[in-house]
């Protein structure tokens, strides 16, 4: 993978569009990205990461705030990256999601994220030549081409600030999380989880089988009525079954004897019951015959009573009908008298007329009432029309009055509207002036504040100049002192080497084991520690000088900006102008604040005038219409009143007269109906009485009263006939019983003992039932125990292999998850990661030994942690000076940087080989060089020179001054109030 061109716009601190040409920067294989702290060096690396994966590394990616704060409303936030990967040159363009001001109205709207991928050298097979525009498709294509995901890319290509120093000092769990992201060992974690889940599932199944066996054993013990022993359950089960079978055999013998005794007793009881039953039948027959002889007279009387009742039944219907007609006749007479009185009450005099005359007169009156029906409806309408006349008069008067009131209101509205419009024009003019005055106030407030801070800025500039002069002098002194010590040490280097020689030991210069003339110190002796202290003092002095330069530049910039904004005005002048402006703002704000209310009032007055005019027109039209309707209706009412007065006669109105006629017709009709009914009932009664006399003569009854005395209801007759029939049947049955052959010789005085036989049979039956119940219980118990025994044997056979299989799975799961027989306490995933870390340690050691001039090497440890915790990811350093293994936390700052850089480069090589990713032709190293001395920096630069061999490009991100002198090609980032910019120098 090689980067060619990067473009950023409104991204991070970069407001305008900035372009980075990596082809020009990487022409020599090594370039430097430098600038002030916070200028945006790392942001360029974030832009590369964002263009590739849509995210940025480290904690910055968690904030998700990528848009430049200084960007304009219409400036799009965008990153474009051109690169070549696997022979394909592509262009990636991405925009994050951000908030921008709405183009219409107030507030903000969300600008959605976008991404596109274009093929610059032609699309490969299987891809559209138009490229990709979906975010997910772009992400998948980039990962496939690079052969690694975002986490791996951030660790392999963008070696970030402090990340590998943290990894170097991390504990096992933190180191494990990072390695998991890089090497994709999730599948081994899935294997561990699969074993754990399988163990839980198999244990649940085993517990179910054990529980099933315990349940069957408990049921066996419940049926046996005994508690199972702790051991030798099988022997106990067999013994219980044997005893149950013996109990069944003994119960069968007892039941056979009891059944035989029961049968003998039941035969004896049956014989005695038959004899007793025959004696009882003879006694009952004699007793019944005697009873029937005693009731012979009463049964004769019952027969006569039944015969008379049957004769009376033939006449009672006619008599009852005659009685009913007599009652109806009496009721008809009372009704006729009532109807006569009702007709007389109406004033009708001819109540004694016959039916024909009454009907003729009623027809005449009905015709007269019918003729008045139409006039009754006109009378009702007359009442309604008179009420309508009154209502129309009131409506006309009311609407005329309302029209006059509305005319008075309309007369005063134009003057009010004119006054409101004048006030509204004044408020509008004040609102226009107010906006300009507020902007002027903001400028004056800022100018007053600037005038107050001007003396302080002048003093700060003077102090910054003095601090810079002192810092520059101290830096020169420290540099001269370090150079003098370097010269003295070089002069005494032979004496320093001679001090380390011993007899018999080879000289590191010539290799001789004989040292005849050892060099002696010739003046002041300077050792490496003293020289390193001088270098450190020079570096501190240089840092103070740079800080002083930055502070003076900032003070100059601040003072120039203040003077430019003040333009020679004093604080007193600005305060006076601001006070006058505030008074004017208060006055105009009061006028402008009333604009909305005045506009609303003007609109309301206009609408009110229109409403009043419309209401007045409506009122005048309603009054005219009411008067017109009233005149027309008055003429109609007068004409109708004349006709109604002629028709009502002596009554109050036509309706009253018609109601009287209708009531009189109804009274005559009811009287006619009553007289007709009375005549009809009288005729029927005479006929029925003649029929009754004939019927009495036929059934031999002298009078109706004699016939009524013989009448009996059907229930009584049926009862008497049933009693007579039952008596005859009982007599015949008793005679037939005594004539039976089996009762010959049986006397009603014989006595048979049945009670003793009953007791004997009951006792024998109870003994037989008890024996049968005992046998059933024993058989049931034996059968249940047999079935439960078979079930226990089946469950036991299934449980044994399940327990063996679970024990094996349990031990294997513990080993895979780093417990149990796993002596190193390493899980499968940790074991794989330990192997990868060992490869990383080997690759990193090759570079660390060069950077540390052969002193340090990485040592991987797979030992278990303290207190039995998981191990396998230990990483220490071997110090060849002492020959001991040291924790990485004991390294100094510069040594930690060397170790971290070596570890990062080694990890990059291993990850690239592991993932099979594209060739990584571009590599970035972000910061850390400030902790190195000049000699170590030389070694590190040599290592980086090796990295760019074969066409690889290495980019360094640092603000160390010495790197500017060593690396000719540089990209400088400048920071200003309007956003950062980049420029390339060579």
From TrEMBL:
Annotated Basic and acidic residues bias: 525-553
Segments of this protein annotated with the region Disordered: 518-553
Coiled coil feature spans: 417-474, 710-778
Alphabetic keyword roster: Coiled coil
Single GO MF descriptor: ATP hydrolysis activity
Domain AAA+ ATPase: 27-322
A Pfam short name: AAA_23
Any GO BP: double-strand break repair
Keyword set includes Cytoplasm: no
InterPro entries for this protein: AAA+_ATPase, P-loop_NTPase, Rad50/SbcC_AAA
Similarity comment: Belongs to the SMC family. SbcC subfamily.
Complexes and interactors: Heterodimer of SbcC and SbcD.
Protein name: Nuclease SbcCD subunit C
Organism: Amycolatopsis taiwanensis
